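Changelog note: in this version the structure field was regenerated for every chain. One regenerated record is shown below for reference.
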Amino acid sequence: MELHRNAKLGLAGRYALARAVEQGCSLKQAAACFSVSPATACRWSRRWREASAEERRSLSCLLDRSSRPRRMPRLLPAREQRRICAARRQTGWGPRLLTLRTGHPHSTISKVLKRNGLSRPPRPAREPERRYEWPCPGDLLHMDVSLYARFERPGHAVTGDRRSSSAEQKQRVGYDYAHAIVDDYSRLAYAELLDDDRAPAVTAFLQRALAFFAEHGIEPKRLMTDNAWSYTKNRSLRELLERRRIRHLRTKPRTPRTNGKGRTLPPDDGPRMGIRAPLPHPSTPARRPATLAPPLQRAQTTQLARRPTAAQPHSQRPWAGHLAGGRLLQSGQQKMPIYGVFSTGARDSNPPPPA
């Protein structure tokens, strides 16, 4: 049962009203107690009184009824509706093209198709997830990059303060690119935080990652990436893979369920080959000290105290009448900035009274 936001009675309220009238309360008294009109109290009490025992047990008598009229003389005949539905199934056309074939207005055709559940084509069946795992370490490595925006101070999700100066809005702090590569079987991962995701950076990262896996006795045979430009059009990366005899696999385009091993890996069931022990994260061989920062956890902060309206951030352009209390606004003042909006003395000389 769907109710609008100003509804006085829900299902529990209707049941309580009907029970109050049944126990001897008058309609006017029940209407006053539940803040509804006497006509509304009479409607729900009558439906409860005329309902059967089964309807009372399931409370179906107190649900909203359809507003569709019982008799519709101008409704399209059933034969014509079947002809429209048959044309829709045969051609797959929309209402405007079916107008030329059936001779009915497109608005009528739209209603017929919606009434018969043919207004939208059925969704194709979703393919089941194909979970896979290669039998040996190094059989498949998956490489990807993630973009993280830098910031100078925490945002409003942590501080609760949405105010920001023009200088903070204009500054460009930049982004960090987290390159990561993980082995399919052993879950051994290598990651670096770099300044970009261009072809030279990707190739250099892969070289260091292959050296990292070689230290752990893993000889890669296949590398899977997405179809990013720095992976598919990177000549240096292709030459590196050819020298190492590593086959380059690419995920299927426009198929999000195959982009990322996190969606296809089975649950972790313990150590494998003795290399599941905690490994120290290697230092990043970059020009600047950079390590993978721990994920920012949202602090459990208390709710901020309610502030006056003038101190709240505005989603619309304020005008001088918002500050008519006289705290900042004076009659005859010229071009005083108020939250980025300039007010003139001609408009502020006679402000309306505060709400």
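Spot check on this record: Residues 260-352 have pLDDT under 50 and may be disordered. The CA atoms of residues 88 and 94 lie 7 Å apart.
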